[in-house]
Amino acid sequence: MKTMQIKTAIIGMAIVAGLAGPGCNSLTKTQKGAAIGAGAGGTIGAFIGKAAGNTALGAIIGGAVGGTAGAFIGRNMDRQANEIKQTVPGATVVRQGEGIIVKFDSGILFDVDKTGLKPAAQTNLTQLSKSLENNPQTNILIVGHTDATGSDEHNMDLSIRRAEAVKSYLVKNGVDGSRLSTQGKGKNEPIADNNTADGRAQNRRVEIAIVANDQMKQEAKQSGE
């Protein structure tokens, strides 16, 4: 099933690449994000993210506006991604299209099967909250993930509570709660093999998708007029 999902996503991405134009290989990440957004639109973008089994990626691609406006948003995201890389040492930061994915291994944030944030996690999230406050024209989706150990019900509940714990801490540190949403995916979106200890550790994670809000999108569209 997972292989079929990935194949479906690849086919969708190939369609998007064709729409984006033959010169795609020479584009920067920002330009590629603009091209994908213009060619695919939110509907196809969200489908690709869902088919690939990655909710955070789907949020970014699904919300893309594309074109000149998308390039404007991409430049803002380039700047914020660099800021997060420099100030949040415990995070893995990936620029994707018109957004940013910030990933924390759950071992950095939580003890095994717990939802209380570790002291080091609080330090990382305090630094992240500063970047989010400095860049108010974004919305943030927090997605919790677990490995396949334990029951489906327990894993889903744990992933939800961990995502909510991260949200609560960011709000406590000044981030407007209206900008934040959460999802728990349990064991349903693995990025590694659950049959190995290392794979299970990779699957236990929290991903944070940062995307442009309506205000930034409007400014981006006006900048291209």
TrEMBL record:
Which SUPFAM superfamilies does the protein's record reference? OmpA-like (SSF103088)
Q: Which PROSITE patterns match?
A: OMPA_2 (PS51123)
Which superkingdom, per the lineage? Bacteria
What this protein is called in its record is: Outer membrane protein OmpA-like peptidoglycan-associated protein
Q: Which UniProt keywords apply?
A: Cell outer membrane, Membrane
Which segments carry the region annotation Disordered? 177-203
GO cellular component term, pick one: cell outer membrane
- Asked if Oxidoreductase is a keyword of the record, the answer is no
Tell me the CDD domains matching this sequence. Answer: OmpA_C-like (cd07185)
Q: Which Gene3D superfamilies does this UniProt record tie to the protein?
A: OmpA-like domain
Report the subcellular localization. Answer: Cell outer membrane
Main location class: membrane
Supply the Pfam families for this chain: Gly-zipper_Omp (PF13488), OmpA (PF00691)
Task: Please state every residue range assigned to the domain named OmpA-like.
Answer: 97-214
